[in-house]
Amino acid sequence: MNLNMKRIKHISIVLVLLVSSVTFAQVKFEAKVSKTKLGINERLRVDFEMNRDGDNFNPPSFANFKVVGGPNQSVSKSWVNGVSQFSKKYSYFLAPTSQGTFTLSQASIEVDGEVYKTIPTKITVTSAVSKPQDGNNADYVASENIHLVAEVSKTNPYLNEAITVVYKLYVSPNTGVSNWREIDNPKYSDFWSQNIDVKGLQVKNGTYKGESYRYVELRKTVLYPQKTGKLKIEPLSLDITVDVPTNRRDIFGGRLMTQVHKTVSAGERTINVKQLPEKGRPDDFTGAVGDYDFKVTTTKTELKASESLNLNVEVSGNGNLKLFELPKVVLPSSLEVYEPEHNEKVTTNLRGMQGRISDNYTVVPQFKGKYPIPSISFSYFDLKTESYKRISSEEIVVDVTQGPNNAIAESQPSVSGENKQPVVLNNDQFAFIKTKTTLESNKPSHFFKSKLFWSSLLVPFLMIPLAMVFRKQKAVRDADVTGNKIRKADKLAKKYLSEAKKALGQKEAFYVALEKALHNYLKAKLNIETGDLSKDKIQNLLLAKEVDQTVVSDFSSILESCELARYTPSTKVSMQQDYDKAASTISLIDKQIR
Description:
Immunoglobulin-like, 30 strands, BatD, transmembrane, signal, transmembrane helix
């Protein structure tokens, strides 16, 4: 009996050891969430934890969530009762983007050549929840002491009047900010926009809702509205790491800080854009709004025929300098005029665009005489007086002192015989009589041993090495898959944009053809009808085809240019820039699309 009891005891010990070793060898990899139900204004923490060190960690896509923190990695090792314990953790902080019930898909990791995956987890996102107003709650303290504000200089501007948007981050004195990053960049649809560089963030003292705060100016943007009515400025959103004081103190009595992640938004702003008044609008008004000077100058007023002078038409001042056309010059037909060279010296600051734009014409007189350059007018809308103003240049007389007389003027019939002009003979009177001849031989020629004979005999032999070289180059070209794809993409871009290229210089026809080309390209590549699609849906389709975000943004901006063309003047230079950008973007999409 005692012998049997000893055997049973030994067997039990062996079983316990076997179970322990199997349990120790088993790999555990699981996803742990801070909560399975949260409000859309709350954060979710997800920990991917494993008991064995692994490689090739692959997190899930986090669909319907934005990653606002992480991944943070932590490793711990310990000994408990002589047994080694290991733990490795990847932590993420997520912010939901919409309400509903979503599934966090599987994460994976590789341990000793085996792939392990977590179990999918369901998360329910509800409407915003009220947060407890607890002075000891770090999230509440952060929300009460951090504010992002978009300060707009004017909310009811005129069309093409400059406004500024300054984004300020306000922080209370007893709170700190360790880091931040932009998670939503504002898109200025229906505005011409220019960001002002912020060189070095300077902390300043100010007030927010009557209380003392410190603040920094994170971003400054100048906007020129291109449409009338109510226009939206999308919000700027930041993910901020906030240092919040706690009730705990260090050994010296100083208060300890804790860090929390906080999402702040400047909120959407509405701009009510006024139409420019119809009353008093000049016929030659092209959309200039601001405060301007206008002048027309020439480099010389006296010269010889076939010499050249430069005629400069210049507008300077403060306003929407890049968004209107300069008046055109009309000169006498005896002055040959070349296409103008457009120059811009414009800087943009919080007051808007400042500087000068000009068209420089090269003028070459053909005949002797005095030629007046008529007065040229420039009209603009003055924001100070809220009225239209016109500036006219003085008439300029160009005196051509030497050169042939104008044949048209000389051929006019005279009034009396006393004014008849004598016939002037020149050396070309008998130019029609040929004084040199070329004689050709009538001797019969033979093909044998002629130059044509030898050429016909040798050319086929010479073509053999050329054919071999050509075939070798063709093989190399056919093997160049990437190069062929690039050439095919460039050819496709030229095909769709050919009509737009023909219409360069004609604003309406050009932008209609350009927009049609872009839509036809999408129709061919995505096999869809684009008439009912919005720009957002087009962006989503292209992103789904693995097209780079930057390229998709460029494509959308070209579509916006086509839409805005009816509201803003366009020069041939700007049309050429839009054409080149469209060709480059179509080519890039065709290379990247899957």
